[in-house]
């Protein structure tokens, strides 16, 4: 017998890609359980599926940076600056990226690259270890939202957030609606999504000089004048990142979806000299609206 839950959760995360660099992503999760009925005539209570399995998935990959640990472009090592922190050094085709974060901000995936198959395999193993004995089978389906318009992938961190959004390299795959004087502008949406294609969004106030950053010795030997540096402390620990200019947008605000919607609206208002309404999404089915 089988039990299924569609749209169990959405995982928002970023991952390292040898070609694209750091990529923000959002995948919807469906689950099917195979098993015998328990003494309550259930395979598993829906409440347990929705809470426990969702919690396992969230803890494993949500709001984390996923690392393809068998990639030759990746180096991971313990931090010599902070306890229970790690360095991540990544040499992508698009440019190099260097980080220091608490260990809990990373998910190590047994793969040369991050894709739906590798993450599905990782999550299936993690969840299966925590299911009751009457559940003999588990099928996960990870899928992106169907978007019939332009969208962008972005990575960021929210230092003021008490939860996992504080992690400096998590992200989203997001669509956007842009209206100029009340009329939707497909051209403006396309242009903005090209501007923020596989982008890292950093807050101006988090930028630091090179002598203030905490990175690995390998990173410090390989940074260039094309890198910008950002660092902050949050409840989970210290976060540091070096990003190349070609992958970076520095904003004059925090990178909450509310303030990003306002940033986009203000920028476009200056460009078009018209009233601008921005419907900015943060992953799937959530976001903020700003009008300038």
TrEMBL record:
EC code: 4.1.2.50
Family indicated by similarity: Belongs to the PTPS family. QueD subfamily.
Source taxon at top rank: Bacteria
Pathway info: Purine metabolism; 7-cyano-7-deazaguanine biosynthesis
Family matches, as Gene3D superfamilies: 6-pyruvoyl tetrahydropterin synthase/QueD
Catalysis: reaction(s): 7,8-dihydroneopterin 3'-triphosphate + H2O = 6-carboxy-5,6,7,8-tetrahydropterin + triphosphate + acetaldehyde + 2 H(+)
Protein name (record): 6-carboxy-5,6,7,8-tetrahydropterin synthase
UniProt cross-references to InterPro entries, sorted A to Z: 6-PTP_synth/QueD, 6-PTP_synth/QueD_sf
Organism the protein comes from: Thalassotalea agarivorans
Molecular function terms from GO: 6-carboxytetrahydropterin synthase activity
């Amino acid at each position: 017998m089988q039990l299924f839950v569609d749209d169990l959760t959405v995982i928002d995360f970023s991952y390292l890609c040898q070609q694209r660099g750091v990529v923000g992503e959002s995948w919807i999760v469906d689950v099917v359980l195979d098993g015998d009925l328990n003494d309550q005539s259930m395979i598993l209570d829906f409440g347990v599926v929705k809470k426990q399995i969702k919690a396992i998935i969230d803890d494993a990959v949500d709001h984390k940076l996923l690392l393809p640990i068998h990639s030759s472009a990746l180096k991971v090592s313990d931090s010599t600056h902070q306890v229970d922190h790690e360095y991540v050094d990544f040499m992508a085709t698009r440019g190099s990226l260097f980080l220091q974060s608490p260990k809990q901000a990373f998910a190590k995936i047994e793969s040369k690259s991050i894709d739906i198959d590798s993450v599905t395999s990782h999550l299936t193993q993690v969840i299966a270890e925590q299911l009751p004995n009457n559940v003999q089978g588990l099928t996960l389906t990870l899928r992106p939202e169907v978007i019939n318009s332009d969208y962008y992938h972005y990575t960021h961190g929210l230092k003021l957030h008490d939860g996992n959004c504080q992690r400096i390299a998590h992200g989203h795959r997001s669509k956007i609606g842009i209206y100029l004087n009340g009329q939707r502008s497909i051209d403006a949406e396309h242009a903005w999504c090209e501007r923020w294609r596989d982008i890292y969004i950093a807050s101006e106030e988090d930028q630091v000089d090179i002598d203030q950053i905490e990175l690995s010795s390998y990173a410090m030997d390989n940074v260039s004048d094309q890198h910008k540096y950002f660092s902050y402390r949050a409840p989970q620990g210290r976060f540091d990142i070096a990003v190349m200019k070609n992958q970076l947008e520095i904003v004059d605000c925090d990178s909450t979806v509310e303030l990003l919607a306002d940033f986009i609206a203000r920028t476009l208002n200056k460009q078009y000299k018209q009233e601008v309404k921005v419907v900015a999404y943060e992953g799937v089915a959530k976001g903020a609206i700003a009008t300038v």
